[in-house]
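Predict the 3D structure for this chain.
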Amino acid sequence: MAPRPAVDKLPEPIRIELDEKLVRNGFGDYLGLSAWLAEQGYQIGPKAVWNHGHKLKASIEKSVNRARARLEGFRALGGVSDEEKAMLMEANEIVAMDQILDLFEEMDGMEVADRIAAIPKLVRASTDLNRGAIGSAKWKKEFEAEARRQAREEAVQAAASAAKAEGVSEQGIARIREALGMVG
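Done. Predicted structure below.
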């Protein structure tokens, strides 16, 4: 297995600050960032910082592109119906699951102890997503059932109005409603 990159071995607060500096610097000044790390007590060369910055930039761009695609989808839809919202929620869940799978793939270069520590967090995120997907599916099923009920009610109302216009009695209309499963 390939050795773990030096930047990945940094304490989390230092790595987070490095990531922030990379973003603020527009993913440049690797010599300066390497010097800053040396001031913090970590000897990491500019090439290693560049490799980390390159991965971070690619990850950010991937997330931004995914978000941009979802936003464009919302804009293209204009007024979004509840059914479309359900479809978009499903799409977002798929994107999030894809990101979790990307993290699993990136674990190849990690040390065993770090992998063991990360796996419960990834499994938890996956479980939460699945729980959300189940909730979305339940909501979608209930929404579709309500839409069918409303459509049936509208059909009964249209049939009743047409029957009344043709001179069918109230008793006849009640029997029509009953036959269509709309008692009352």
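Residues 112-165 form the longest helix (54 residues).
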